[in-house]
Amino acid sequence: MTTPSLAEQLADSPNVLRELVFYMARRIAGQEGDELAGEVMRWIETNLGAEYAWPGNYRELEQCVKNVLIRRNYRPSAAGPADAVEEFAQDARAGKLTADELLSRYVTIVYSRTGSYEETARRLGLDRRTVKAKVDAGMLNKLRGV
């Protein structure tokens, strides 16, 4: 069993963010924690939005709380997803993909790991010709670091 990422936890229960921010703020700022937490929540809502994926998970959120306390600002270290798989996951979680895009990207990810149309087709329960037609060359290059 794996622990879900912060983004997955927030997708299941958006109140988790507020609870974590208040917990961290109280731990960091003591008696002034509730005031700090309110400021951090306002900053997140205004600057990052509810859909921010928190690619750095819990530690990134903690850095955000500390930076808002000290600098009244936070700049995420990476503007976008770390890689093509994370980008796919973020787009899928946000509901940004059509069914065809979802299939194409997923087929491409599996194909990049198997290196075989036949094995990808077997794993996904698809026809080999469908797999070959759905592999996205641009995404495949990203996955291979080209």
Report what the structure shows:
By secondary structure, the chain is mainly alpha-helical. Helix content is 68%, strand content 0%. The chain has helices spanning 6-12, 15-29, 33-47, 57-71, 84-93, 99-114, 117-124, 128-134, 137-143. Helix 2 crosses helix 4. The longest helix has 16 residues, at 99-114. It is elongated, with a radius of gyration of 19 Å.
Say how many strands there are.
Answer: 0
Number of helices: 9
Shape: elongated
Strand content: under 5%
Largest sheet: none
Element pattern in H and E: HHHHHHHHH
The radius of gyration computed from the alpha-carbon positions, rounded to a whole number of angstroms, is 19 Å
What structural category do the secondary elements indicate?
mainly alpha
Poorly predicted segments: none
Distance between the termini: 33 Å
Mean pLDDT: 87
Binned, the helix content reads 55-70%
Question: In a nutshell, what does this entry contain?
Answer:
With 146 residues, this protein is an all-alpha fold. 68% of the residues lie in helices and 0% in strands. It has helices at 6-12, 15-29, 33-47, 57-71, 84-93, 99-114, 117-124, 128-134, 137-143.
